[in-house]
Design goal:
The complex is a heterodimer of chains A (344) and B (141).
Chain A lengths: L23 H6 L3 H12 L3 H10 L7 E7 L5 H12 L6 E7 L8 E3 L1 H4 L1 H4 L4 E7 L6 H16 L3 E7 L3 H8 L3 E6 L6 H5 L3 H4 L2 E4 L7 H17 L12 E3 L8 H15 L4 H28 L2 H10 L4 H13 L12
Parallel strand pairs in A: 1-5, 1-6, 2-4, 2-5, 6-7, 7-8
Helix pairs in contact in A: 2-3, 2-7, 4-12, 7-8, 7-13, 14-15
Chain B lengths: L6 E5 L8 H12 L3 E4 L6 H11 L3 E6 L4 H14 L6 E6 L3 H8 L5 E3 L5 H18 L5
Parallel strand pairs in B: 1-2, 1-3, 3-4, 4-5
Helix pairs in contact in B: 1-5, 2-3
Classes of the chains: A alpha/beta (344), B alpha/beta (141).
Chain lengths: 344, 141
Amino acid sequence: MRSEPVGWYHPGLVTSPQPPQAPLAERLLAGDKGALARLITWAENADARFADVMRALHPRVGRAWRVGVTGPPGAGKSTLVNEFARYERATKRSLGILAVDPSSPFTGGALLGDRIRMEERTTDPGIYIRSMASRGSHGGLARAAVDACDAMDAFGIEEILLETVGVGQAEYDIVAATDTVLVVLCPGAGDGIQAMKAGILEVADVLVVNKADLAGADRLVLDLEEAVHIREHTKKRPDGAWSVPVVAVSAGKGEHLDLLAGHVARHRAWLEEGRLAAVRRSKRLAHVRQVVEERLDEALWTRGGLAERAGALLDGGRAPYDVVETLVAAILAGDVSSRGAPKP
Amino acid sequence: MNDQKIRVLVAKPGLDGHDRGAKTVASVLRDHGMEVIYTGLHQTPEMIAEAAQQEDVDVVGLSILSGAHMSLFPRVRDELVKRGLGDVLLIGGGIIPGDDVTKLESQGFAKLFGPGTNTEEIAKYVIAEMARRRAATGGRR
């Protein structure tokens, strides 16, 4: 029995090699991109079949290296991902790209245009690209994104690039779930103080100054280096702690991607010096907690009738925290159960 | 908690630099709650079908103004079928003469929208057709 999927990087097997009637897990292991695409759809829809498929594939998850790419709109993330994927493909037989864009909070719709910048990668049989809309609230996005990465990982993809617009907690949660986080900035979008704002430095494993050919890039690199220096020298750090490098690239011109790739490889090597298992364990724990919260919310709040009880208490003139105390006490006393049958 | 969105690929096949119509339709479908993937200009049939497969879309909408629809549209359809995507709702729009519309609608294209079509009509058609198809298959993909 082979442990690697054969179809994925096998020329001529890039299209559905099996009739769609075959079980999805089988098609996935045979390297059918269509099966991977459907599995990710199930993840996005919180469809129970996702868990069924992944149960069998669980031993295959954990081999892919996950790189998160985030930064403000217009920093050139999609272009960078496209060029970085091209560069990485010289040494990696397969790459996955997950590009997350916002959904409209008003209509729920989304316009996903990241593929435009990744056009040259579309026809590469060793690359799978998926656009994902951020959809609703409740951190469901982080869950769906991690699930999609797990699906690609199980499929046998070697490296996954996960791109999100760096605004807000949900996006932060997503990139924090990857192994190496790139924060992409560009000159002309604020001074170094902007970069010192909460979140940007903390989440980054590598700081990337894109559009390095533009005026102000050198200044931004210096500002970032200074900010990193201050951050890393104002508190006690363990020996051998990771020092965040700042790298200037010009993704649109394909310049200095080798330097970026070097930093990613160095960060990976640093994690693999006995740190990776613990880091991944805590990230996996966060993911499990996320799903538990989502399930409990649905089971108790919606099906367990907590929403109605809360509404009734509020209508009766009770103060909000009074209502909270009552409901939490009822849950802990086992006085709430998810009555309705689970939805399919 | 099974929340199915309608996912749509809007694509411009061939050598045709006019994508205002495609962008307009993409925006309108988005405003009707759909997740719309737009891939930009100058796409080959292979690129369109490949994107449709990777993105697992429910609908593929082609826009063409170059006059090459009779050669490009059926090739997109062939590439989709080759990838096991014959069940995708395939629609199109652009400057397409009536005779060609009839021919294409007998070759796997569900509906073609000509110049002057009200954009609301396109969105309503997609929503109604997807509802009908999902009801027929029990809503599970």
